[in-house]
Amino acid sequence: MTDRILVENIEPENPSMRIAVVTETWPPEVNGVALTLSKLIHQLSLRKHTIQLIRPRQDKFDTASEHAGWSEILLRGLPIPKYPELKLGFPSKKSLVKAWSVKRPDLVHIATEGPLGWSALQAARVLRLPVTSDFRTNFHSYSKHYGVGWLSKPIVAYLRKFHNRTHCTMVPTRALKTQLQAAGFENLHIVARGVDTQLFHPGQRSQTLRSQWQADENTVILLSVGRLAAEKNLDLIVKAFQTLAKNGRHVKLVFAGDGPYRAKLQADCPEAIFMGMCSHAELAHIYASADLFLFPSLTETFGNVTLEAMASGTPVLAFDCAAATEVIEDGHNGWLVQEEDAQRYVLKALEITQNTATLRTAKSHAAESIRPWDWQEIVSQVEAIFRNALTMGSKA
After folding, report:
1. In angstroms, rounded to a whole number, what is the distance separating the alpha carbons of residues 96 and 216?
2. Are residues 335 and 388 in the same domain?
3. How far is 208 from 113, CA to CA, in rounded Å?
4. pTM above 0.70, yes or no
5. Could you tell me if residue 8 is inside a domain?
6. Which domain, by its residues, includes 62?
7. Is 9 inside any structural domain?
8. What is the pLDDT of residues 206-223, one digit of tens each?
9. Digit-coded pLDDT (tens) for 94-148
């Protein structure tokens, strides 16, 4: 195996770019979009690109940071219904036209499609700036979980209009690309999400943590990581755990994360362990100390937690969609359940835990299979897409 090359030691082969990145979520907010976008932007900064981050102010104490190669523009925002800790940016076209007229970027990259993202798209068109975008969140799927399923078609129409006005839209999986193409989306490019394999790896397994969970060497720790919300299909995790326990499996269930669904989960499954919000360092130990990662979500565009679990040496049981389809070889480094069948998901969990050798074998393959998903390759793909957009923009 060849030695890994750190980004810090790579000199860019092409001139650096001035990239304006527009997002309505950013750390310390904890969600897949914020975390993966911040990792991508950090890696681009290491490659000597100049970054201008445009985002909503997270609270009254939030201040813009500025240093060599990095600056921020903070704008007004309002809480998202059901997600009060997250913000939607207010329409800000005039502010962005003014800012970009003074400090013109080479390219605008829009990560979220809210009012701030739409304003950025309009401002970029006024100034004839090339624009790229991400499709990161299945808003049209989430709407069904919050009593506004009737909005699904209008939301898809808005997203199609939004993304088709950009030079290209990055999507994380082949399946999503096919789905969006069928819905009329154009200029789609597959760019997977990366995973930090230096942080998430099997060596993070902690016997101290397992002891805190009162787990011995024969205990199978079932793990869920992520926001505790209705659209995550977490009731199926509880059902699987309770079925395993009733069938004599020596199992414990751990939830890492928080959210509006926590109270219901605690009421339905008081024997589960709730870790609450965890830092990346804490999650690295939690992933590696578990034995089977349960991921029954059907609404993800990707599901970064799948990669993080597998990089940590913990095999995953998931439906055959999103990231799971891309990275899991059924029966080798994890398991895929077809047709969104909840009963089949539970039966597969029973089958997996019947013999501990089954889990051990999958664990031995999980981390190695994720190595190609390290951030180095992902950032190189994004750079190439940005440069292509610049070329197209100059010809417009």
Report:
1. 57
2. no
3. 43
4. yes
5. no
6. 15-194+374-395
7. no
8. 999 999 999 999 999 999
9. 999 999 999 999 999 999 998 999 999 999 999 999 999 999 765 544 444 434 3
